[in-house]
Design goal:
The chain has eight helices and 20 strands. It has about 325 residues and is of the alpha+beta class. It has three domains: about 60 residues, Uridine Diphospho-n-acetylenolpyruvylglucosamine Reductase, domain 2; about 110 residues, 2-Layer Sandwich (Uridine Diphospho-n-acetylenolpyruvylglucosamine Reductase, domain 3), CATH 3.30.465; about 100 residues, Alpha-Beta Complex (Uridine Diphospho-n-acetylenolpyruvylglucosamine Reductase, domain 1). It has a five-stranded antiparallel β-sheet with strand order 6-7-12-10-11, with no helix packed on it. The protein is globular.
């Protein structure tokens, strides 16, 4: 166990924010986790870091920051229709998607190229192009930092919602997710109706749909719209798409006839946050080293040398402008440290 002091977290967050961790430890084997997390000689405050793709650092990080680099994918069981895989939480999410596709296992192909690690998938209930992680998650195993023991929650117990789960509420900052069990499909149920997947498949001259073709189409779409964190610091979508009542939407539509929506229930709809932000004039905005991406208004960016406090302040201005113009309160998707 090699604990380092005052280590810059710049290489470990996709915003590229250069702030230090008071103490830093990388682990690649969960077998030593219990000893580490119960060692009274270590700082009481523990910060769990995976891919750093959904984190905004705004100040030096106190306590012990643990970088989870554990790897491993194990087939647990299978039947005529499904295969269950235990995946270590430190696995890169897109690597797991590629593994599933290579083994003809369907269910996560629409989630291709989402940054981060497997451990974030249940926490965020990551989603894209009409699919959410909750549709394939069977259970989640974690170490409870307060109760000091391993626990497993099934899908229902995780209380998944839109970019939401129990891990962002009662269990926030209380668990270290060690593995996620996925139930993937041997017989694919293709989902190509959301977004521009069908158009992209046509553009690619794909006549026979497959999970590989859907993945390739999603990768092409994401690459064309979203900045590469290796080139421009960002954490993907910074804001959630808000859900509002149909009554409020109908009122807004009389004033803004072009406002788009997607049905959620008989009484509510979802409005694209990117559209709202763009209509408020933020798309392509730049202030020194930070700004709003020129192709996707949902994405706040660090062009280099920017700091988390400034990005936070920019997000506050974006929130206020949308609230003032549309009466809609946006919520940040990114976790702020």
């Amino acid at each position: 166990m090699r604990i380092q002091q005052n280590i810059s977290l710049k290489p470990y967050n996709t915003f590229g924010i250069d702030l230090p961790a008071e103490s830093f430890l990388e682990i690649d084997d969960h077998g030593t986790l219990a000893d580490i997390l119960t060692d009274k000689a270590l700082p009481a405050k523990k910060n769990i870091l995976g891919g750093g793709s959904n984190v905004l650092l705004t100040q030096p990080v106190a306590g012990l920051t643990i970088l989870n680099s554990s790897k491993g994918i194990t087939k647990v069981k299978e039947d005529d229709n499904h295969v269950w895989l235990d995946v270590s939480s430190g696995e890169v999410w897109h690597d797991f998607v590629l593994y599933a596709i290579a083994n003809d296992l369907a269910g996560v192909e629409n989630l291709s190229l989402i940054p981060g690690t497997v451990g974030a998938s249940p926490m965020q209930n990551i989603g894209a192009y009409g699919v959410e992680a909750k549709e394939t998650i069977d259970s989640v195993t974690f170490w409870h930092l307060e109760d000091k023991g391993y626990l497993t929650l099934n899908n229902n117990e995780c209380r998944f919602g839109y970019r939401d789960s129990i891990f962002k509420h009662e269990l926030k900052n209380k668990v270290f997710i060690t593995s996620v069990r996925y139930r993937l499909n041997k017989k694919p149920d293709f989902n190509v109706s959301y977004g521009a997947i069908e158009q992209e498949l046509q553009k690619m001259n794909i006549s026979e749909v497959s999970i590989k073709a859907i993945s390739d189409a999603v990768i092409a779409i994401r690459t064309s719209k979203l900045p590469d964190p290796k080139k421009i610091g960002n954490a993907g979508s910074f804001f959630k798409n808000p859900t509002i009542s149909i009554k409020q939407y109908d009122q807004l539509k009389t004033q803004y006839p072009d406002i788009p929506s997607y049905p959620v229930s008989e009484t509510s709809v979802k409005v694209p946050a990117g559209w709202l932000i763009e209509q408020c004039g933020w798309k392509g905005f730049k202030d020194g080293n930070i700004g709003v991406h020129q192709k996707q208004a949902l994405v706040l960016v660090n062009y280099g040398g920017g700091n988390g406090a400034d990005i936070w302040a920019l997000s506050e201005k974006v929130l206020k402008s949308v609230q003032d113009k549309y009466g809609i309160e946006l919520e940040r998707e990114v976790q702020v440290w």
